[in-house]
Description:
Layout: H1 15-47, E1 52-54, E2 61-63, H2 76-85, H3 88-116, H4 121-131
Antiparallel strand pairs: 1-2
Helix pairs in contact: 1-3, 3-4
Amino acid sequence: MVRQCPAISNISFDQDSLDAIAEIQDIHDLKKYGRIAVFLGHFLTIFGGVGLKGASGSGALRLENKMLFKLGASDANQASWNLTQVNWEYFLMSFQGLDRLALQQIEKIAYRQAHLHISKSKEYQFWRSIYLGCTPNVK
């Protein structure tokens, strides 16, 4: 649940806060790239023929001897079989994991910044709100 952000007027940020805001933006950007990487990995597993299969008898995983950047599977039957074998639960868990990791990092930054700005009431209020789950609509 997203908390309502408090109205803080005439706030000015020092360099530490500006650096922390830039760091949070970097985390959001990395999360976007992570989602693209997870999606492309699953896409290649289904359609590119890069799935993992067990070696006969040993149970060990080996990468199937196919070209990684192959644009399509060898036939439609193989692609449809791969589609049913992809673990969609892990796919969704990967996306959720990216969100959790990003949130944990943002909480650490906000906590650190709140403690650095205890003597500056407006910046402290801003960082405390971020730590408690407020998401400001700042461009």
